[in-house]
Amino acid sequence: SQNTASGSLLFGFDNIGIMGSFAYKPGPSANNNTEIDTLHKTKKIKNKFDLEVALKAGMNIKGSNDMLFKTFAELALTSNVHKTREEYTGSPKWYDITNQNEHTLQLNGGVGFDFAHNGSVTQGASFALNTAWKIYPTVTENNTQTKDAKKEYGKLEDTITLNPAWQLTYEPEESKVALKVRAGLPITFKFKNAYNYKDTITGGLSSITYNTARIHTTGIGFQPEASIGLTYAPVSKFRFNLGAKFEVPTFGWTIKTTKHRNSSDGKLIADGIDKTITWQFNSATGKIELGTGFTWLISQNITFDAYWKISALNNFRI
Fold first, then answer.
1. pLDDT above 70 (res 222)
2. For the chain, first and last CA: distance in Å?
3. What are the pLDDT digits (tens) for 78-101?
4. Model's pTM, two decimal places?
5. Quick check: 212 and 196 in contact, CB under 8 A?
6. Cis? peptide before 92, omega within 30° of 0
7. I need a labelling partner for 253 at 20 to 30 A (CA). Which of 126, 169, 240, 285 fits?
């Protein structure tokens, strides 16, 4: 059976907070095992799992007119590992590797601040920049016995997301109830290139073949979102939380350019560029998420927080 393990650790000092987190999900047992044949002196190792590790730090900075800027920066790596290694442990030793791993490096940062106070109502804004850079393996196959290998160059997939948001908090003095509303408009830019050329090595001899129909894709997407949260504190150190998040269907457009080239040298053939622009409206991405939980303020330095997803209304149509 598949099991997912995850965890996070948060600690802070003065005006700085640091959080580390991880999530691990193994693949199916058929693609995640080790087979050892002592008679024929071979070992076959299959690794298939997803792993995500992240480190996030935040700092509150005081500005003029008693404004407080809440800044954060995050570094994360998401790995989709799918690798097979076959070894011969006799003499001479050799190995055969098939590598389909994909890694995504994420660099994120942002700032939030309150800009208006009117009694029990506070308005704020936040801006975040999230980036994701996919890392593909260059060597996809390698056999040290036969000296065969396959290498792939020029593959690219990057994502940049701008996320401006507005929020409103209603928190009357000495009230046990507080309400927060947030609305955002994430704007995502995507850049993707198919591989440029492949290097096939047979018996140590190299043969380069260019992609005869290399596709370059540029896209921009919008996904407005809104959320609402309600807390109720029957006592000062304990409160119940209830929230809902609404995501509308995504929309945007994609520019797809196909370059038709010679396989021998990569040069364009006559009239070798095709370009299409596609408008997209994806209603399957629209959904409503509901959640509940509680927060227990154990002491000044220790807080216990728990939540549950109680319902998900997915894939509504417009």
1. yes
2. 37
3. 999 999 999 998 899 999 999 999
4. 0.81
5. no
6. yes
7. 126
